[in-house]
Amino acid sequence: MSSIESAGLSAGRVPATLAPIEIARRFSHRRIALVSAALLVLIVVLAFSSDLWLTRDYADQDPLVRNQPPLGDAGLLGTDQLGRDLLARLMFGIRLSVAAAAFGVLVQLAVGVPLGLLAGYRGGWIDSVAMRSVDVMLAVPGLLIALLIGMNIKEQVASGSGAVADVLRSIDRLTAGLTPVFVVLVVFFWVSMARIVRGETRVVMARDFVRAARGLGAGPFRIVVHHVLRNCIAPITVSVALLIPVTMLTEAAMSLVGVGVDPPRPSLGVMIYEGAQQINSFPYQTLVPSITFAAVVLLVGFVGDGLRAALDPTTEQGR
Amino acid sequence: MSANGTIARRVGRTGVVLLVVYAITFVCVRLTPGNPFAARAPRALSPDQQARLERQFGLDDPWPVQFVRYLFRALSGDFGVSYAHQGEDVVDVIVARAWPTMSLVGAALLVGLVVGVPLGVAAALRNDSWFDHLLSGVSTLGVAIPVFVATPVLVIVLSVYAGWLPAQGWDGLISTTAIIPIVVLALEPIAVTARFTRASMIEVLRSDHHRTARARGLARRTVVFRFALRNGLVPVTTITGLQVAGLLGSVVLVESAYNVPGLGKEFLAAITARDYPVVMAATLIFAAVIVVANLLVDVAYARLDPRIRSA
Prior knowledge:
The complex is a heterodimer of chains A (about 325) and B (about 300). Chain A has helices spanning about 1-5, 20-30, 30-50, 50-55, 85-120, 125-140, 140-160, 165-175, 180-190, 190-205, 210-215, 220-255, 270-275, 285-310. By secondary structure, chain A is mainly alpha-helical. In chain A, helix 12 packs parallel to helix 13. Chain B is an all-alpha fold. Chain B has a domain at about 95-310: MetI-like (MetI-like fold, Orthogonal Bundle). The termini of chain B are close together. The relative contact order of chain B is 0.14.
């Protein structure tokens, strides 16, 4: 990857010299990003409030209204083969996507950023170990390892004995069955953030104002928080936005394969998979979650593109 | 450092990556609770039978012994016996399913290059035109839509409604069954290749030597295709190498969604059936393909770009 960065093509490398108010103004000029952000907020609010405005629960089965098409008598989006309301299931699935995305962001900020700062600031063997680990993590078959870890955690929770399994079981009760997904996010999602922040830190550390600050007697904490971190905000924001779709994808793929959330809880991945079993007779059952998932991911992508342009002072007006 | 030194170091790193993948896989599989034999036995196993089976498969040794033994056996090509395919050698299970997977991944990479590069060049030549903007929007779409969404959507449109293509299955690479999987897998390579080709070409077209060549009266077509493209495609090699890792993940999902009897579908089946020997072997083979692809890209890169050799 280093060769890409030297070619100046890396997505995250953006010099940060814009004031927050200026960034907000530039973002607001990007109509697509703004509309996408508004739609996302709307979708998230609808999903998390669905218990208030929906009459049926995602797990309620009704043998009288099985496989009803959308826009019919049985709800806006119809029902699945067990007569469960697809709209209720869709809303719950979006909640799981949002949960995975939020946790992925947390991992990036709470693990990736500090690690990158430490490696970039201290250098030496910490830097070497961290960056070799990053190289290795970027070269492993991610999805396969994720599924393997998911399989392991799933079995630990289901039938494991010992302290580790007990801890995992109590986490699983808290996370409503998303533990395998969360473990995978912890394992993988610090990597690119650590690399980006480490690179930025090295760049900032070599700048004159850092040397000046040090000459004036600023301690490491002040330099890292006041100078380095502040200059890393743009690449951190862009990286977070770009990785949110990947976290949602991880959750959906793991659940689809059966090492994510447990039935009857509907992940969008589970809905796509279950619907695909009846693709010839009732294509809408897989089409509805598929289009929803693609739309949400695309909206997040548009917001990310908008943020990247707004944060990059080399583009005019953030266009 | 010399070119050979760089390549030797990269070969060393490849070994480290494979060892790490092996360690993660080993830990995941060995520390998974539950008993693979008890789950398959028609009736409850007596403690005596259980102990005999564990001895037979070497599961009663301390795990460091198992770790080293499996490693050395794997290096000599012995991956053990599958639990799910009764008594079948894991190598046979894998070899029988490798062809559909590798041909799908190879075809998707090829389509990605053949479609992506011209699109990227065209967008770079018409920088900031409507075509450029359209391509950028479409490529966001290509990256954003995951394969497990694209597969059912294409099946619904092209198979269920139009009836042009089969809805699932595999009759070999040269058949109508291969079209939907290849198209689905190629979406991201096309989008990423086009994006990188465009960015790289724009940079080359702005460079001084390009301007000089134009100023000396060489035709635009000559300059673009004889000089700019050769420079502009160098970063694209790196991207193509990175695509392999993504494709080997996607192919697992596409194979299971389109019912292609390949390695990916077998891997998922093995995960579900807790067929540990197959899970371990499949993961290692996928990892090996990825690191070898990255190594080849590094070597190609060093040959294409003289600056890397001295770096």
